[in-house]
């Protein structure tokens, strides 16, 4: 068995791991990185990039199909599933290639392939070939799809989002379980590409939304386009004649039995920490085996072990993984000089149509933090009659913004509507800069733009905060349809 000694070991070569490696290297040259699978981040290989490629194809088909609403007459689009998936795979491989190139530029002697297991607080074993003794560690092992046991009855007809991006052609039908970010994005995209899709969930939740007003609106809007039941009753799951078969109660209360080419389990992800031997270390573990870590330092208790990215089970987003990797790697590199790192304002976007955005404190957090004290106000706006949105026939959406009573501090927002990915950035910058609602209203708003809807929501909450007058229903200075 080969024996190695080093200062820092980074376990995992994804977004968080690469960031941790580079930052640890700023403090010590003795850093090793271990990877058990293929190089290439979750985002590039099976996450944000290939999903957006599929969504882009779906948006192109949807635009053609709805062009007659503008007076532009077209034929119904013909979907070449093989061509759609060929572009998805080709561009996906291109993005993955960039990541692989970046990893392969790192010194070869710093890179080790194999599965890692902690032997104790200072030793790792890599498969059956290497034992590494190190002073500090960063766990950046990512996550994997969670598959509830009952779904295993579908056998090889059960797929996860990873499998979708290796398809050679589009299937005829897919049942999607889980109306979260992945399920909603892929389900709607496949529907728009001509696949018969039914999207099932439990508890009424959709996307990451917590505001009941926005959640109810989203449920209504998506169900108008394709079959979405976020509080479904599904039973009798099995394979019959080479198809995935299930029985569900439709929205009229009638049982329906239907067969699908595939069942897509988009039922969340779990951190890859269960086979690392963390129980052999002194770090304190939560019930599901994830180390308890300080979100500002990414340090596990008072130990020399740090954690970052999806493995931390905190915020599973690429930019968060990069930030966590920076913090964990820097602290591992300069240990025991532990410092708080930059944690940015929470921001989330769902690339459905209409899009979903969330920034700052969400509704659930506000109700938990403020309770019934009435210490915050809610402003809102509908995008159904908003000028620029109607011009583009993108006038489906609703926004709720939250602000603190007394100070007028802008706290956050949840919304569904056009250009949510862009609006979310503007609002997140406002939260991070600790702007008040009056300060935000002093910013310029062009006409006609979708962002004028944001101004309306801000004016609405400003009036409730007693910082400004009630909204003028027909504001001539704003321009028509603002």
From TrEMBL:
Cofactor needs: FAD
Tree of life domain: Bacteria
Assigned EC number: 1.8.1.4
Amino-acid positions noted as binding NAD(+) in the UniProt annotation, renumbered to this chain: 178-185, 268
Keywords: FAD, Flavoprotein, NAD, Nucleotide-binding, Oxidoreductase
Keyword match Flavoprotein: yes
Residues bound to FAD: 52, 141-143, 310
Active site, UniProt feature: 447
Domain FAD/NAD(P)-binding: 7-325
Homology family: Belongs to the class-I pyridine nucleotide-disulfide oxidoreductase family.
Official protein name in the record: Dihydrolipoamide dehydrogenase
Protein's organism: Pseudoalteromonas luteoviolacea DSM 6061
């Amino acid at each position: 068995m080969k024996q190695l000694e080093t200062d820092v070991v980074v376990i995992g070569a994804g977004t968080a791991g690469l960031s941790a490696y580079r930052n640890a290297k700023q403090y010590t040259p003795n850093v090793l990185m271990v990877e058990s699978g293929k190089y290439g981040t979750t985002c590039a290989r099976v996450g944000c990039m290939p999903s957006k490629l599929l969504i882009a194809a779906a948006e192109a088909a949807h635009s053609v199909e709805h062009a007659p609403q503008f007076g532009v007459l077209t034929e119904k689009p013909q979907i070449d599933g093989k061509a759609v998936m060929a572009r998805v795979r080709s561009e996906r491989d291109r993005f993955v290639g960039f990541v692989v190139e970046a990893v392969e530029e790192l010194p070869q002697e710093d890179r080790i392939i194999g599965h890692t297991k902690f032997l104790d607080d200072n030793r790792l074993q890599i498969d059956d070939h290497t034992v590494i003794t190190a002073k500090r560690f960063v766990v950046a092992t990512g996550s994997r799809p969670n598959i509830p046991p009952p779904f295993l009855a579908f056998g090889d007809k059960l797929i996860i989002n990873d499998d979708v991006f290796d398809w050679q052609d589009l299937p005829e039908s897919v049942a999607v379980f889980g109306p979260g970010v992945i399920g909603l994005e892929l389900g709607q995209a496949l529907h728009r590409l001509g696949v018969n899709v039914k999207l099932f969930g439990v508890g009424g939740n959709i996307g990451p939304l917590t505001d009941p007003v926005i959640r109810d609106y989203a449920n209504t809007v998506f169900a108008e386009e394709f079959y979405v039941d976020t509080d479904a009753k599904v039973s009798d799951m099995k394979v019959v004649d080479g198809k995935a078969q299930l029985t569900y109660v439709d929205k009229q209360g009638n049982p329906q039995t239907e067969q699908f080419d595939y069942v897509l389990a988009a039922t969340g992800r779990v951190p890859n920490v269960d086979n690392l031997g963390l129980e052999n270390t002194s770090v304190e573990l939560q019930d599901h085996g994830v180390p308890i870590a300080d979100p500002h330092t990414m340090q596990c208790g008072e130990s020399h072990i740090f954690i970052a990215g999806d493995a931390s089970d905190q915020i599973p987003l690429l930019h968060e993984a990069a930030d966590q990797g920076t913090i964990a790697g820097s602290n591992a590199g300069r240990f025991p000089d532990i410092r708080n790192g930059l944690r940015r304002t929470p921001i989330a976007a769902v690339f459905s149509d209409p899009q979903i955005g969330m920034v700052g404190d969400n509704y659930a957090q506000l109700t938990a933090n403020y309770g019934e004290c009435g210490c915050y106000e809610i402003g809102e706006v509908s995008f159904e009659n908003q000028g620029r949105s109607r011009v583009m026939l993108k006038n489906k959406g609703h926004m709720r913004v939250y602000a603190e009573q007394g100070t007028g501090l802008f706290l956050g927002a949840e919304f569904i509507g056009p250009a949510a990915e862009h609006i979310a950035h503007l609002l997140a910058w406002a939260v991070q800069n600790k702007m008040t609602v009056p300060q935000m209203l002093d910013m310029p708003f062009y006409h006609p733009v979708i962002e004028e809807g944001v101004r309306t929501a801000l004016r609405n909450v400003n009036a409730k905060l007693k910082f400004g007058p009630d909204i003028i229903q027909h504001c001539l200075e704003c321009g028509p349809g603002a």
